[in-house]
Amino acid sequence: MTPTQTIEIHPSTEVPPVIQLPQPGRIFADRHARFAALSQQHSLSDWLAYLGRLTQAQHDIALTLDTLAPPPPDAVERARQHGMPPLAALSYPRPANWTDIARRLAEKMAKGAPEAMHAPLAALGAMTVTELDAIADALLDGRIDPDALPETTIVAAALQTIWTALAARLDVKTLAIPDPSELCPCCGSLPVASILKTSAQINNLRYLHCSLCNTEWNVPRATCTACNTDRDVNYRQIDGDDGSVRAECCDHCKSYLKIMAQEKNPGVDPVADDLATLALDLLVDEAGYSRSGPNLLLLGGAG
Fold this sequence. Notes:
- This protein is an alpha+beta fold and about 300 residues long.
- It folds into two domains: about 20-175, FdhE-like fold (Alpha-Beta Complex); about 190-300, FdhE-like fold (Alpha-Beta Complex).
- The protein has helices spanning about 25-40, 45-60, 75-80, 100-110, 115-125, 130-140, 150-170, 270-275, 280-285; strands spanning about 20, 190-200, 205-210, 215-220, 235, 245-250, 255-260, 290.
């Protein structure tokens, strides 16, 4: 008779990270792959495929930004002492060549772009630095020109790529969760969504995902990420879906933000899966809730 063997399972002794900095070498490549998967047999397949190409272009450019200088340590320390993010989107100086990056993205996207995008992409390529700076300033301040949505999406993608590269070069030990906690500890931007992560080190902890620099930071579950209440939160999803993407809705402030579960679908991406579930936005919007964080790639619309 074979003796009984006892298998001992030891939980990870590592403390889960409070803040996870982005990895520019893979974040956009992974997102491109997710867009490619989501675009199969989707009612918005052409649009999702276009955004997949845009994230591939972001990846190509991100690989060239490894020498981008982070803020000096004394500036990071001053920001920490004052409870401010070191890469504050509205005040941190953009690299001198950021407009070249926007033009490179437009040039990459012009090849094989839908006919409706030809004129906007050409127009962006001809814009002056002043004009591009004005679009970027308005975007980061939440003011969107409805007559320049396609151009704004390219500018947003350029800023995403740059801020992701900058955030990756920070020392996570110098960062702290800001107050209010719904703002990114690196750049102060709002989150695009939250994600329940599963790994050997992280077991279903909830992280907010920055809409600009792709940093993630831990916040308690079942808490409104806009007003911090834990009493009036409910969850909604499209009937028949697998539950990997739900809307976390707050009856106190009437806001919502999507929450995604890796346990349900390991491949979920906060940006791509958000854009592939616009029907959920319509559902909760009709129920009287307003979205609390932006998706910068949604600015060009879905049609």
